[in-house]
């Protein structure tokens, strides 16, 4: 049932054989000749070592220092400690002893000008060339025994790798992303950050139920505002057979905690304290996915002070069933006395299943009907559209091609009264709707999704298996990146909570809340079946009333 099926770590697919060097294509036309080898150039070394986003910043920075994170070469002959030590020496050499240097495991953080960054790379390349020359001289003694007079073979360890490239201390230099963590970017993208400041729209006095794999109560993201502290009769519940209710605040899967951290919660550290650490994913080539660390001073959900009610409907392996969802929806009805006294004001459902119109008429499945019934009782329900918006077709030449598919909204996203949310990147005006985001219309022709929100590479609270995978590369991480419409939905839930905390006359009127969010959304200029009404916009929604 987990909508978060978009795997950021899946290796890139190789080009089909038809893109090779054959002289004639399937339609009889000539193909281009095979590519020639790229000529060598010293500039290629700099370009490969300095990451592209850092190059862009260097072009714009003038002589201002840029925060950098230097990734050390783990296969350095002297190991990471020697590489780290040498990089620190080189920074002093090119930038002076007063330049801040922060060693972090297999990374070194500093602040350097564009000129100093280039000088650092050049100095490291010179080091590597000198080391290689020394190694060659070392080998040309005593008839190739690799020893000098008075030294034994055991005293001269052979290099672990050969060639100057492997002797560099620096693998890659990245910009320090600490001022723009992805959830922080999505706070800006949805204009929640501005709404916090201008309207005091923090989601205070609201309770939002998260129907998911549980929420890790031990995560410090939820401590600052005691987001999981609830007054009776509100109580966290597990709807997984054979489990106790205290399992609702334990999350071995990690999905629910990540979702909840986008919606609410906040963590801030002083400048005197070590920063927070998040793990993000990148793929250097077509090989294995790797982790890199991002340092944060603050990270906030869309409605940081909103209270969260955890309803555990997914098992520890991330699976679940409709029965658990229905039981949780009924529990919320009971807490609210079926609309007579609202204790729970909203629900986030980042779970679902692909819809097959042969099962039920679209929007009339049990789960959709219960969602609509809950909305009619006065509760805002936000659901993920699904991650099934793409697939494969076979073209006339017999080639498999990836393409977008319409009519792929998942249940309960087909529920008419729910706010159904698709995904974008954190730069939606440039990149539009995510390729995986399920597209409308519904099977019976209704317009869906309703809105879109950031759902690609979103950083939020990490725990369980979701975090465990990242800890191998970034062992101190407490936040982690994930993608999917599962991440988009809580952005809208948080915006709705922030909106209702200011305009409390909308509490208990989910139809008006939905209309306000839809009518104030920012169009991305995409087809309605892709973007709905557009990107959710907290500031415009607040100002529209």
Automatic annotation (TrEMBL):
Keyword annotations: Hydrolase, Protease, Serine protease
Active site, renumbered: 212 (charge relay system), 255 (charge relay system), 486 (charge relay system)
Aminoacyl-tRNA synthetase in keyword set: no
Peptidase S8/S53 domain residues: 204-534
Domain of life per record: Bacteria
Family label: Belongs to the peptidase S8 family.
GO biological process, one term: proteolysis
Identification of the protein by name: Subtilisin family serine protease
Gene Ontology MF terms: serine-type endopeptidase activity
Pfam families xref list: Peptidase_S8
Residue span of region Disordered: 1-44, 131-153
Statement: the UniProt record of this protein carries the keyword Metal-binding: no
Biased composition (Acidic residues): 131-141
InterPro entries: Peptidase_S8/S53_dom, Peptidase_S8/S53_dom_sf, Peptidase_S8_His-AS, Peptidase_S8_Ser-AS, Peptidase_S8_subtilisin-like, Peptidase_S8_subtilisin-rel
């Amino acid at each position: 049932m987990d909508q978060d099926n978009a795997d950021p770590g899946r290796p890139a697919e190789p080009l089909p054989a038809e893109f090779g060097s054959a002289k004639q294509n399937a339609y009889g036309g000539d193909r281009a000749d095979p590519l020639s080898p790229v000529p060598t150039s010293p500039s290629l070394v700099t370009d490969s070592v300095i990451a592209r986003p850092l190059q862009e910043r260097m072009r714009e920075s003038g002589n201002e220092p840029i925060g950098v994170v230097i990734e050390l070469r783990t296969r350095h002959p002297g190991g990471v400690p020697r590489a780290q030590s040498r990089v620190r020496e080189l920074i002093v050499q090119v930038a002076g002893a007063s330049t801040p240097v922060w060693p972090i495991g297999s990374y070194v953080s500093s602040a350097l000008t564009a000129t100093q960054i280039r000088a650092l790379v050049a100095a490291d390349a010179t080091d590597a060339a000198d080391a290689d020359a020394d190694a060659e001289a070392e080998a040309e003694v005593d008839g190739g025994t690799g020893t000098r007079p008075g030294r034994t073979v055991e005293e001269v360890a052979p290099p672990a790798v050969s060639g100057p490239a492997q002797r560099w201390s620096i693998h890659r230099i990245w910009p320090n992303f600490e001022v723009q963590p992805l959830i922080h970017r999505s706070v800006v993208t949805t204009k929640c950050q501005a709404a916090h400041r201008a309207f005091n729209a923090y989601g205070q006095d609201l309770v939002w139920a998260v129907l998911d794999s549980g929420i890790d109560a031990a995560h410090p993201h939820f401590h600052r505002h005691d987001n999981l502290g609830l007054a009776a009769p509100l109580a966290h519940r597990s709807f997984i057979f054979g489990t106790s209710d205290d399992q609702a605040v334990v999350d071995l899967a990690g999905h629910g905690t990540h979702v909840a951290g986008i919606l609410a919660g906040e963590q801030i550290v002083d400048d005197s304290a070590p920063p927070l650490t998040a793990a993000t994913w990148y793929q250097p080539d077509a090989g294995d996915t790797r982790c890199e660390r991002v340092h944060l001073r603050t990270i906030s959900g869309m409605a940081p002070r909103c209270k969260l009610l955890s309803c555990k409907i997914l098992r520890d392996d991330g699976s679940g069933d409709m029965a658990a969802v229905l039981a949780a929806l009924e529990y919320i009805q009971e807490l609210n006395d079926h609309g007579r006294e609202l204790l729970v004001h909203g629900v986030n459902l980042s779970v679902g299943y692909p819809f097959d119109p042969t099962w039920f008429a679209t929007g009339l499945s049990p789960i959709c009907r219960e969602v609509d019934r809950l909305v009619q009782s006065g509760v805002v329900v936000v659901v993920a559209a699904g991650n099934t918006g793409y697939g494969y077709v076979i073209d006339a030449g017999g080639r498999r091609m990836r393409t977008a598919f319409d009519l792929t909204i998942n249940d309960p996203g087909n529920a008419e009264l729910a706010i159904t949310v698709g995904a974008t990147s954190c730069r939606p005006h440039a990149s539009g709707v995510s390729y995986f985001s399920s597209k409308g219309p519904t099977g019976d022709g209704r317009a869906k999704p309703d809105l879109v929100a950031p759902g690609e590479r979103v950083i939020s609270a990490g725990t369980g298996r979701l975090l465990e995978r990242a800890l191998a590369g970034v062992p101190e991480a407490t936040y982690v990146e994930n993608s999917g419409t599962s991440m988009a939905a809580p952005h809208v839930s948080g915006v709705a909570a922030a909106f209702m905390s200011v305009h409390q006359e909308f509490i208990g009127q989910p139809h008006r809340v939905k209309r306000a969010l839809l009518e104030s959304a920012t169009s991305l200029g995409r087809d309605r079946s892709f973007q709905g009404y557009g990107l959710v916009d907290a500031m415009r929604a607040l100002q529209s009333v």
